[in-house]
Amino acid sequence: MSVLEPMIELGRGLWTTFKQTFFNPVVTVSYPEEKRPVRPRYRGRHVLKRYENGLEKCIGCSLCAAACPADAIFVEASENTDEKRFSPGERYASTYEINMLRCIYCGFCEDACPTEAIVLGDNYELSFTDRRQAIYGKDMLLESVPSADMLTPRKVEEGVYKRSVPEMKDPQD
Amino acid sequence: MTWALFWEWFIKALILIFTLLIGFGYLTWYERRFLARIQVRIGPNRAGPQGLMQWMADAVKLIFKEELTPANVYKLVFFLSPIVTMVPSIVIAAVIPWGTSFQLGGRTIHLYLADINVGVIYLMSIASIAVYGIVLAGWSSNNKYAMMGGLRSTAQIISYELTLGLMFVTAILMGNSMSLVDIVEAQKGMWFAAIQPVGYLLFFIATLAEVNRHPFDMPEAEQELTAGYHTEYSGMKFALFFMAEYQKMIVVSMIGATLFLGGYREFWFLKDTFLSVDRAWFLGPAYLFIKVVVLLGIMIWVRASWPRIRYDRLMGLGWKILIPLSLAVVFITAVGILLAEMFNPLWIWIVLPVSLLVGLLAVMVVYRDLRRKAYERA
After folding, report:
1. For each of chain B's 378 residues, which pLDDT tens digit applies?
2. Cα distance from N-terminal residue to C-terminal residue, chain B
């Protein structure tokens, strides 16, 4: 039988590819039409979160900007009043910009945030046609509100939202 | 020569040329889709339905690419060699019949461009011309890799052309004619590949080497020679080489189908049924098309399956195994035909077992002499 070995080897090679062709399903994901979900702890583009009542979690403390190794975040804070309240406590981020070309998606901002306001989400489809567009402002980063009466800034009862940093449990995930 | 005859030829030539040119486009699509499927991918499916317009996108891209002529090339030869490669790959198809004949306006239109009585010789000579383009491209490029590719190509094509020629001889013997139409008609009862499978296998291996397909694609072995003889070519000149290569694939598949697989004739078991080309002439091109598609599919399948063989082994296989084997095959075929003429036509079938035995002997020699030996690895 060993004399036929060359033929058997060649035939085995052909059979391998034949099997692939007719018995294996295609593994390609046709990307724009079908998308694979990202992993649970995937670090995509940032989202600025809100509380359930619609107030912004971000209090403009700039700790994220301090933690950022790529110096991609710029935060400017202003004073809250009960007439025009953005977030609980004294201050809110009047400007919040992330340069998506500088950002390295390390997630340090997420770790540094005392109110869990900034979270790296699951969106990885970022594209810009010039450098100015790469700077995402608060209008793009902030989570949308479920209903129109929860928009910020809004008028709230006096003396309720005194505390900037909420009472928090240990992180779960 | 009447004007009607002129127009008949002119239109048939145009049909042939456009079939080959468009066939090239769809062959690239076929190869890419089929290879992709073998590698459990999808392949190009964006341009047009199922990616069928991919060739058009590729053509537009290649036409608009920058055409670079390196400073130290031999300009005239550098310019001419893509043409010298391209033209024979189309011209060679002239003698291949694609059907029987039909009546149109009182004329009998034959579905071949030319039925010259030395058709097989014509195939051989045009096939040899194609190598000039490759070797001249390699030489005029003034590039070591291109030169090596060109040289390899010449050596390889000359070596395997002997086997190819001997297999042509087998088909001529069995068809008792050098005209391709007669050879096809002689396969009405039985395909030559069924009587002489070893001969067909040899023919197939030799054509793989002739058109520089895997596993014999030494002239453009990219790991060794970057891109071989067309390293310095870009834009439309490169496209001409590319086209020539794929048209040669189509053409050798047509030749293989014609000489051994019944050409435009139906499968032998469909003889005298309503699917016979004698009843419906338009089935002729369809049968040829099916055979060519299957043969091209096998070429692509082989490309996906087998690794490239080393150059000295390629030469060893060509000279030490294939040429003696093909001489033996020619001899056996001739003896079988002689016996069939002397005693009974059924004696032709003696060719099948005897040539299979000789083929087995050749495989044994491959095993003994060309196999990688254990002590070489030590």
Report:
1. 688 788 888 888 898 888 888 888 889 899 988 888 888 888 888 888 888 888 888 888 888 888 888 888 888 888 888 888 888 888 888 888 887 777 777 777 777 777 788 888 888 888 888 788 888 888 888 888 888 888 888 888 888 888 888 998 988 888 888 888 888 888 887 888 888 888 888 899 888 888 888 788 776 666 777 777 778 888 788 888 888 888 888 998 989 888 888 878 877 777 777 777 777 777 888 888 888 999 999 998 988 888 888 787 888 888 888 888 889 889 988 888 888 888 888 877 877 888 888 888 887 777 776 666 655 554
2. 72
Full domain range(s) for residue B231: 3-377
- Closest by CA to B286, choosing from B302, B305, B266, B316, is B266
Interface contact A14-B364, CB threshold 8 A: no
- Kindly tell me the burial class for residue B1, based on how many C-beta atoms sit within 10 Å of its own C-beta (0-12, 13-18, 19 or more): exposed
| Residue B240, burial from CB neighbour count under 10 angstroms (0-12, 13-18, 19+) | buried
Show residues of chain A in contact with B366, CB under 8 Å: 6
3-state DSSP of A87-147 = CCCCEEEEEEEEECCCCCCCCHHHHHCCCCCEEECCCCCCCCCCHHHHEECHHHHECCCCC
Interface check for A6 against chain B (CB to CB < 8 A): the answer is yes
Asked if B69 is an interface residue toward chain A (Cβ–Cβ < 8 A), one would say no
Q: How far is CA B22 from the centre of its chain?
A: 17
Partner-chain contact B363 A4, CB within 8 Å: yes
Q: What is the pTM of this model?
A: 0.80
A142: left (phi over 0), alpha (psi -120 to 50) or beta: beta
**Best B31, B34, B35, B39 residue to mutate vs chain A (most A CBs within 10 Å):** B39
Q: List the helix and strand counts (H, then E) for chain B.
A: 15, 2
Q: What is the distance of C-alpha B297 from the center of its chain?
A: 13
For B298, name the nearest residue in chain A, comparing CA atoms only: A14
CB contact under 8 A, B306 and A10: yes
What is the least distance, in Å, from the CA of A35 to any CA of chain B?
16
Split into its structural domains, chain B has a count of 1
Q: Which of residues 99-158 of A touch B (CB under 8 A)?
A: none
| Beta bridge partners of residue A119, listed in sequence order | A47
Domains of chain A: 46-150 (3.30.70.3270)
The reply to whether B361 touches chain A by the CB within 8 Å rule is no
- Select from B42, B366, B371 the Cβ nearest to the Cβ of A28: B42
B300 and B30 Cβ atoms separated by less than 8 Å? yes
CA distance B193 to chain A (A): 19
Q: B375: which 2 tokens?
A: 């002590």
Q: Does B9 touch chain A (CB under 8 A)?
A: no
For residue A8, give the chain B residue with the closest CA.
B363
